[in-house]
Design brief:
Elements: E1 11-20, E2 23-38, E3 45-51, H1 53-56, E4 64-69, E5 75-80, E6 87-88, E7 98-102, E8 114-115, E9 136-141, E10 155-163, E11 169-171, E12 175-177, E13 180-184, E14 194-198, E15 215-227, E16 244-253, H2 254-261, H3 264-282
Parallel strand pairs: 2-8
Antiparallel strand pairs: 1-2, 1-4, 2-3, 3-7, 4-5, 6-7, 9-10, 9-14, 10-13, 11-12, 13-16, 14-15, 15-16
Amino acid sequence: MRVPDEVRDTVVFVGSEGQRDGQPAIIWRGTAFVVAIPSSRADFNFEYFVTARHVVAPLQGQRYFIRANRVDDGSVVTRGDGRETWWFHPTDSSADVAVLPIGINRNVYKLTAIPIQMFLKDPPGEGQSHIGVGDDVFITGLFAHLSGDERNHPIVRTGNVALMPSCKVETAKFGKMDAYLIEARSIGGISGSPVFVRETKMFAPRTPFFAFGKIHLIGLMHGHWDLPPSAKNDVVGDDIMKSVNMGIAIVVPAHKIIETLEQPELVEQRKELEAHRAAKMAQTPD
């Protein structure tokens, strides 16, 4: 399937300090994407970076970096000192979600926010009869082997829904998790990337990418399913191969992101910011 070009503008790369060829360097390790929640006012939205918790949790208290493309050319690298407050799911420790409130200068950054209206809001199986096994999915994010020197170059991978979240999925670090399984090619290395699903129905030509009902955000990328060495069934390969990527990816459902964004503290933050903006707009000069 053809994927809208602007989908790649929804993501940034997340990195940490490391070494390359014996020299200090930023190692890009994961993907985050931008989400917008509408305010009651028409002049602004609340925006957040969203990624997998396992991407940013190890960076707490450490320097880390986020790289976003510029409108003109090149990119901007923003340094975090580890003191920023990434918010995790308030009640579900198995939810691999992290969000960070942000503000984006559209004159500088070439970023497109994913409206929360595009999210599959209900838990799978509740009001989602229009989405099911076999529907096309696509993922955009970091390809660790080709992250780009001066500019982000997100890649797009495609596949299909392999299993709806009808049962808990056992994961290495998050226990039993509510998750979609998707079949996707070459899935390793894009933790935190947004995962979209396309409904299987016809649409009018030139329907915009953000036309609600055409494409949905199904969730975010947790990781891929590995076959352990003890079960390789005599796969031919070097000893350094520690596991075999089975081509099945684990996706955190979008409603877990919504639950993270709707925790009381963040809701209160949005109310306070909206009240502050309203008061500022109401001020008149002497």
